[in-house]
Amino acid sequence: KLATGEYADAARLAERARAAHRALGDARGQAVCLTQLGTAHFRQGNGDAALQALKRARTLWRQHGSASGLAETLVALGQVEFFSRADYDAALALFDRAQARFAAAGDLHGQAKCLLNVGNVLYYDLGRHDEAVSRYRQALEVFRAIGDRQGEAFALHNVGNVYRTLSLGRHREGLDHLRRAHDLCIEMDDAFGVALSLQVQGRLHLSLGDHESARPLLERALALFRQIGDRDEEASCLHFLGVVQRARARHDEALALLRQAEAISRETGDRRALAYGPVEQGETRCAQGAWREALDLFQRALDQARALSLDGEQVDALTGLAKAHLGLGQAAEALA
Q1: DSSP notation for 107-147
Q2: What sign has the CA pseudo-torsion 169, 170, 174, 176?
Q3: Can you give the C-alpha Rg of the chain in angstroms?
Q4: Residues of the chain predicted below pLDDT 50
Q5: What share of the chain is helix, strand, coil (3-state, %, to 5)?
Q6: Which of 73, 96, 97, 193 is the most buried (most CB within 10 A)?
Q7: What pLDDT is stored for residue 4 in this prediction?
Q8: 298 with 282: CB under 8 angstroms?
Q9: How far does the chain reach from its first CA to its final CA, in angstroms?
Q10: Contact at 8 Å (CB) between 76 and 42?
Q11: 25: alpha, beta or left, given left = phi > 0 and alpha = psi -120 to 50?
């Protein structure tokens, strides 16, 4: 169920299996189920429940052995710290510890997963794109060598996502990687992978200014994420559909979509989304001439970005603040 993106069903099955293992006194079985439960909660956007389950799994692994089992749980904990809590140092430390344990156990699949996750930190937090791509390509080689097609699809997706953000004429190469990942996920009936590749393809078209191509891709991704119950990715699709509508000067529709996205992010505790989401709302309100409301939105984004030490998001919020001050005729504040 986790592999096919049916997270609510996965959580229910993991709970039932854990109860059965507990009745048998099987600590290792409980640890496996708790890791699966934590992963299901994470994919549904419930970071606190995910952390609780994964920390209990980590305790059981430490008490009852299995280096690979503990390493899998450390990876899942790192993903929650990274994506849900935006604690990049904690995430990187967990991935490094997991990598060492996988290496000691000779687990190539686990080592490749760690390479993907470390690449994510290098890309999202540190902006070290070349290093991120290097990690993703190393993981891609390992996944292909061991015949892991789902891992191969994730690695292709991650490389394509980095190329999406580069202004180095690599968008076409990025789109090629994303389409290959999409085809693999369709072959494997991996709903989450299909949705993710559609979403990033949509964002690539959006970055090229091709809004008409971006919109149907994002709408298809949104429908799939809603079907599988991935709330964080649902919010992400709503956000970028809002960006599309703002670019099309459909400001009321844009604002409604962006507010839906923010409401979900508040429910799931996605702190990073709460740093960039208000910026797009602020830009929309600027386009509507609602300068004072825009000012409040940019300030809210700036406060959140500073709390998380997100440099890029701080720049976007400060730029928006200057625009709003100028719109209000406050040139001195805009230059401050």
Answers
A1: -HHHHHHHHHHHHHHHHHTT--HHHHHHHHHHHHHHHHHHT
A2: positive
A3: 21
A4: none
A5: 85, 0, 15
A6: 73
A7: 58
A8: yes
A9: 53
A10: yes
A11: left
Q: Tell the burial category of 262 from Cβ atoms under 10 Å away from its Cβ (0-12, 13-18, 19+).
A: buried
pLDDT in the model for residue 67: 83
60-65: list long-range contacts, CB under 8 Å, 24+ apart.
Answer: 60/27, 60/28, 60/30, 60/31, 60/34, 61/31, 63/27, 64/27, 64/28, 64/31, 65/28
**What CA–CA distance (Å, rounded) separates 321 from 299?**
7
**Region label for 189, one of left (φ > 0), alpha (ψ between -120 and 50) or beta (otherwise):** left
Q: Which of 328, 330, 280 shows the shortest CA–CA distance to 300?
A: 280
Amino acid code (one letter) for 118:
V
Ramachandran region of residue 87, left (φ > 0), alpha (ψ -120 to 50) or beta? beta
Considering all CA atoms of the chain, what is the largest pairwise distance in Å, rounded to the nearest integer?
71
* pTM as predicted: 0.79
Give residue-wise pLDDT tens across range 159-194.
998 988 775 568 888 889 999 999 999 999 999 899
